[in-house]
């Protein structure tokens, strides 16, 4: 959903400030971001927050991204993507689902990338999977992991599982699933989403 709202000749007293800001709950879907432009300068806020400014024309548009932040990793992802959160003992999973591209982020008390690859390839049927090493630079880090190439009844998809290493002993995996064309090429949605994450991802030091 995209819309643009222009507020002309808005005269309010005071400088810009944001009211009713709430601390993010990583188990809840992030609020849609709003871009407020004042005298050519952009300010990103969340839906439902109020903006006050004195004597300026303000335009407000729905941002094309939301920001995921669970305290250890943060990144932007497309506003149009769905959001799901699943948790159990020693396991957390966030899923962001687009039309052809899916982002998954896991935090696991015990487990490895290889263990995940073994389990997932078993679900697809190992005879339908080709597994290879892969790496991807996201933000300030080069992440390493495995790619599962799946060819199931003529449908092709790739699933990249990349480990985000930190010093607390928890296994963190960011995964990207893309529905490829008949030649195995990535979708435009996948390419644009990876670019967005690459530009915005931050890691807790």
Automatic annotation (TrEMBL):
Keywords: RNA-binding, Signal. One of its GO terms (molecular function) is RNA binding. Residues 1-21 form the signal peptide. It comes from the Bacteria. This is Uncharacterized protein. It comes from Kordia algicida OT-1. The lineage of its organism: Bacteria, Pseudomonadati, Bacteroidota, Flavobacteriia, Flavobacteriales.
């Amino acid at each position: 959903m995209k819309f643009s709202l222009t507020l002309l000749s808005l005269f309010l007293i005071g400088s810009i400030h944001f009211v009713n800001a709430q601390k993010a709950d990583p188990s809840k879907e992030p609020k849609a971001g709003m871009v407020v432009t004042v005298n050519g300068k952009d300010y990103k806020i969340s839906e439902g927050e109020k903006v006050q400014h004195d004597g300026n024309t303000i335009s407000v548009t729905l941002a094309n991204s939301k920001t995921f932040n669970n305290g250890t990793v943060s990144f932007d992802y497309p506003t149009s993507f769905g959001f799901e959160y699943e948790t159990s003992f020693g396991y957390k999973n966030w899923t962001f689902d687009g039309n052809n591209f899916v982002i998954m982020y896991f935090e696991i008390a015990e487990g490895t990338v290889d263990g995940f690859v073994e389990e997932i390839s078993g679900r697809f049927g190992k005879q339908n999977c080709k597994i290879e090493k892969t790496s991807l630079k996201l933000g300030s880090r080069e992440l390493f992991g495995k790619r599962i190439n799946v060819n199931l009844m003529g449908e092709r998809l790739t699933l990249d599982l990349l480990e985000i290493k930190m010093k607390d002993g928890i296994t963190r995996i960011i995964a990207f699933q893309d529905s490829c064309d008949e030649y195995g090429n990535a979708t435009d949605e996948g390419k644009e989403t990876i670019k967005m994450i690459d530009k915005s991802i931050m890691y807790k030091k």
